[in-house]
Amino acid sequence: MSTARSSVPAPPRVVDSVGGAQSIFRVLRILKYVGAAPARGVGLTDVVRDIGLTPPTAHRMLSALLQEGFLSLNSKLKTYSLGRESYILGLAAESRHGIKAIAESAVLRLAEFTGDTSFLSVRSGHEAVCVDRKTGDFPIKILTLEVGHRRPLGVGAGSLALLAFLPNDDIERVLARYDATTAPDLPSTDMLRDDIAAARKLGYALNPGRIIPDMAGVGVPVFDREQHVVAALSVAAIRSRLSGPRLQEVVVALQRAAAELSADLLPRT
């Protein structure tokens, strides 16, 4: 079985405007960063490099999170992963914002129908977070996103679907914070604007290989009853499987699944 993967991008560096809350912001960014890391976890040097902290500060914050149970330490690899308390908080959040449980069958059906990899993503500030992933039976698996993986809004098909169908003012606020220099494979702001315009015209978001040249992705937004974007469904595959008539078949399947999910999110009367 072949796979295509991408590394976890570093979270955007943000200049803290509230001096007294600086440490809190830094700790929260560390938690987000560790949560998006591969299964092996991240080391102290990773946190220092990608979050922009000094080694003593990073070590102090990691130690505090470890002591409180929000991180766990692999003593052999010297890497940090999310700990038991983070898991408990996640369960509490899932019980209140349980779109993953509601959408799981739709994500699975998409993977089974297309044979490729399907994703459910939600917005978190200026980022998109993958909250579910299912793989189909096609032998080449596109695994560019793991559950918990974060990307800047607009980068990738699902992430672009989350951004493109926001109100114009929200889009401009996101683009004002977007920094294409944080990773070598990020599209420019002008490219993002073109992608947003294309997605709005087509009714779906298309990633024509911006992250991995031989991979393509297509995504659609999921709306609530007020027509606010609450999630995105997407499918990723090798480019030859997302072109021509088959692309339209996948788009129709995505749009049908998104409409059904929107209906499932409506309160029962």
From TrEMBL:
Where would one find coiled-coil regions in this protein? none
Q: Which UniProt keywords apply?
A: DNA-binding, Transcription, Transcription regulation
Please, which domain of life does this record's source organism belong to? Bacteria
Q: Which SUPFAM superfamilies match?
A: GAF domain-like, Winged helix' DNA-binding domain
Q: Which residues form the HTH iclR-type domain?
A: 21-84
For this protein, the record's PROSITE patterns field holds: HTH_ICLR, ICLR_ED
Query: Is Cytoplasm tagged as a keyword?
Result: no
Check the record and name the Pfam families matching this protein: HTH_IclR, IclR_C
Question: What SMART domains does the entry give?
Answer: HTH_ICLR (SM00346)
The processes (GO biological process) annotated in the record are: negative regulation of DNA-templated transcription
Q: Which GO terms describe its molecular function?
A: DNA binding; DNA-binding transcription factor activity
> What range(s) does the IclR-ED domain occupy?
85-267
The protein, known as: Transcriptional repressor IclR
Taxonomic classification: Bacteria, Pseudomonadati, Pseudomonadota, Betaproteobacteria, Burkholderiales
UniProt lists the gene as: iclR_1
